[in-house]
Design goal:
Number of strands: 0
Distance between the termini: 34 Å
CATH architecture of the largest domain: Up-down Bundle
Strand content: under 5%
Radius of gyration: 22 Å
Order of helices and strands: HHHHHHHHHHHH
Mean pLDDT: 77
Low-confidence stretches: 148-153, 167-172
Largest sheet: none
CATH topology of the largest domain: Four Helix Bundle (Hemerythrin (Met), subunit A)
CATH class of the largest domain: Mainly Alpha
Helix content: 55-70%
Length: 238
């Protein structure tokens, strides 16, 4: 019996409430959980703790798996396991940041971007404090909670000699690339049909926004607005 067929059999037994089926299913898929947890080591959380969090994601995937997907359970489970670990590291990791502070950090970044567009320069803390109606001390604390995401292809030293990606260890790079691809595929599959078509035409067919609009029978402006909305949703889900 193939691994996928074995998983399907166990999943049916789990969903039927058979005693011991969930333990047997978890044992069968522990290798998958451990391999994904391995890529999140070195972030202040013990490996075995990451494995336990990953198991929660695996169990959630098992309970939500739709047999009509016609896909291997491992393909479906990878983004759920990785996502559960990411959420733990983000929300419950060793560095505790309040939701209020995170929200202020996000507002600060938006205010900063708007200030730069309007004034053509970086704002001072006092200027952002006035715009947001909060103290400068709160903004300083919030800045650590809202560090902007940097592209892995961005220059590491402010020159053209090397990118941040060159500093990333190569260990488990293949697994990381696989989990990221599967997570992205899962997120795109969950989009409404029109949004899926926009992503496919723009990023898989490499069409311009204008050409994409012609194919779909909508304006370039509509494509641009939808694309921004889609990318925002994908960032949240990933």
């Amino acid at each position: 019996m193939s691994e996928n067929a074995r998983n399907m059999e166990l999943l049916y037994r789990v969903r039927s409430g058979e005693p011991g089926a969930l333990d047997e299913f978890s044992a069968e898929n522990m290798g998958l959980v451990r391999s994904i947890a391995l890529r999140f080591t070195g972030r202040g959380i013990e490996y075995e703790d990451l494995v336990q969090i990953g198991c929660i994601g695996m169990i959630k995937a098992a309970k939500n798996f739709d047999f009509s997907f016609n896909t291997a359970f491992s393909t479906y489970a990878v983004p759920h396991i990785a996502g559960e670990i990411r959420r733990f590291l983000r929300d419950d990791g060793p560095v505790k940041v309040s939701r209020t502070l995170r929200r202020l950090g996000s507002e600060m970044m938006r205010a900063r971007e708007e200030f730069i567009k309007e004034k053509g320069r970086e704002p001072r803390i006092s200027e952002l404090s006035e715009v947001l109606g909060c103290s400068e001390e709160d903004l300083v604390r919030a800045s650590e909670a809202a560090r902007p995401v940097r592209s892995i292809y961005e220059s590491a030293a402010g020159d053209d000699e090397g990118a941040l990606i060159d500093l990333i260890p190569e260990n488990d790079s293949a697994l990381e690339a696989l989990t990221d691809r599967l997570a992205l595929r899962q997120a795109i599959a969950a989009l409404p049909e029109m949004q899926r078509k926009i992503i496919i035409l723009r990023y898989y067919k490499d069409l311009s926004q204008e050409a994409t609009g012609r194919v779909l029978g909508i304006s370039q402006v509509k494509v641009s607005r939808e694309e921004k909305k889609i990318l925002g949703e994908l960032r949240k889900s990933l």
